[in-house]
Specification:
Order of helices and strands: HHHHHEHEHEEHEEEEEHEHEHEHEHHEHH
Oligomer: single chain
Distance between the termini: 11 Å
InterPro entries: 4Fe4S_Fe-S-bd (IPR017896), 4Fe4S_Fe_S_CS (IPR017900), Fe-S-bd_prot_LdpA_C (IPR021039), LdpA_Fe-S-bd (IPR057431), PSI_iron-sulfur_center (IPR050157)
Strand content: 5-15%
Number of strands: 14
Protein name: 4Fe-4S ferredoxin-type domain-containing protein
GO molecular function: 4 iron, 4 sulfur cluster binding; metal ion binding
Shape: globular
Helix content: 25-40%
Largest sheet: 8 strands, parallel, barrel
Keywords: 4Fe-4S, Iron, Iron-sulfur, Metal-binding
């Protein structure tokens, strides 16, 4: 019933300009003058912030999220939030996790860092304190070699000419570059801190600053996550899944990482491998990696098809490469077992692209009629494309609400303590997650 409401109700956001309705009941509309009236402010003093938040969220008809993440993978309505393999702003990550847990995501993917994992879990539990719902899986991301997702920008602000227009600051989607001691919001270690240069924990390695520097002062610092530290992190009870980022070209490096992780992988519910489109060699690379994992694979596995990394927030066309990658892999009869999930350039237009290709929530038996398929028909019903991972776009639409909140209440503000911002953020998240969850 709740899910049907979401499917038939147009969520009003700036990204859905044609929508004529809003998810928020008129009695709780943010444009309602009563929300900002002195009478309302007086009334709220008699109620705790927690009660206000619960009232707002319970008034919304949220998607039905009673099914497990595994069930979502089978049905084709799996949604993963990508916080960023290098993004380490724990305050922002906590708030993102809270909002998207309420919106019904099945998994939250984050950096393989203990403090980041704790922030994700804290956000999840804060959401579950508001509304009784099932817990999304927590996934950590690692890499076997140099990878775009595992790098940071770096430069010495003292080397920057005083008359530079600072294009790097303007182009950064994470607000991770600041100059001249201006207060920078959303920093995990302080409410408002004056920082010049790159704010390391906010930089997630998109690389957009590198080509725009007129003096070529910015450099990238790449790194590889330590396998032993990752193995210890996997043994925590609050980590459910792991994703290995690989180019697919060097199976030796993949094998070294897999072997170094040892028996720790037995603690996981899902193991994902994220790889770019390698053209004709993609399927053979996938089969090579699966053969490496298979002897010690005790969980479900997933292939993340990374179309155009870290580009979903750029524009409508960014999702084309992820759609094309999905078409290529689903047509391959010799692909190895495992769920398939889109990433890299995914945004509000991804579902439309999948539907045009006949891939949205389409089962294997309907799409593949060849009995020689690597995936046995006995596994059906099983969605050909299990779901979508949203990264930059998901962070952008909710992040601007969180930034607005932080500008008013400080960089360490918790979104559940400011109900009007929680409601706005949740509307944005539902506009993205809801269409995937419609059955």
């Amino acid at each position: 019933m709740a899910l049907r409401y979401l499917c038939t109700t147009n969520v009003s956001t700036r990204h859905h300009a044609s929508s004529g309705k809003t998810l928020v009941p008129s009695s709780l509309s943010l444009t309602n003058s009563r929300m900002h009236s002195s009478t309302s402010e007086t009334d709220t003093k008699n109620k705790s912030t927690a009660d206000i938040v619960k009232s707002l969220v319970n008034t919304l008809v949220l998607p039905s999220i009673s099914s497990t993440p595994l069930h979502s993978l089978h049905r084709g309505n799996w949604v993963k939030l990508i916080c960023g393999a290098s993004f380490e702003d724990v305050v922002h990550i906590r708030n993102l996790s809270l909002v998207y847990t309420l919106a019904g995501v099945d998994c939250i993917d984050c950096a393989a860092d203990a403090s980041v994992v704790s922030a994700v879990n804290e956000g999840i539990e804060a959401a579950r304190d508001i509304v009784c719902l099932r817990r999304p899986w927590v996934m950590i991301s690692v890499n076997d070699d140099k990878d775009l997702h595992f790098r940071k920008a770096e430069f010495d602000p003292e080397d920057c000419p005083a008359d530079c227009s600072r294009p790097c600051e303007n182009v950064c989607p994470a607000n991770a570059i600041s100059f001249q001691g201006k207060p920078t919001l959303g920093i995990s270690y302080n409410t408002e801190a004056s920082v010049d240069g790159v704010i390391t924990e906010r930089c997630y390695g998109c690389g957009r600053c590198l080509p725009v520097c007129p003096y070529d002062k910015i450099r990238e610092v790449a790194y590889v996550r330590d396998a032993i530290t990752t193995a210890d992190l996997i043994k925590r009870k609050d980590v459910d899944a792991m994703e290995i980022h690989t180019s697919g070209r060097q199976s030796t490096l993949f094998e070294q990482l897999w072997n170094a992780l040892g028996d720790s992988v037995g603690n996981l519910k899902l193991i994902a491998v994220s790889l770019p489109n390698g053209g004709d060699s993609t399927i053979s690379s996938m089969n090579n990696m699966f053969s490496i994992m298979k002897p010690n694979l005790q969980s479900f596995n997933l292939w993340q098809l990374d179309g155009r990394p870290m580009s979903g927030d750029i524009g409508r066309g960014a999702t084309k490469e992820s759609i094309a990658f999905a078409v290529q892999v689903t047509k391959a009869k010799e692909r190895p077992p495992g769920f398939l999930q889109l990433a890299g350039g995914t945004n509000a237009h991804t579902i439309e692209g999948l539907k045009k290709e006949g891939l949205f929530q389409t089962t294997i038996t309907e799409y593949l009629h060849d009995d020689n398929s690597a995936i046995s028909p006995s596994d059906s019903p099983h969605a050909l494309i299990s779901g979508i991972a949203y990264g930059g776009y998901a962070r952008k639409i909710v992040g601007r609400v969180l930034t607005s909140m932080q500008s008013q209440h400080g960089g360490a503000a918790s979104v559940e303590d400011h109900s009007e911002y929680l409601l706005m953020a949740l509307k944005e998240a539902l506009a993205l997650v809801g269409p995937v969850k419609c059955l």
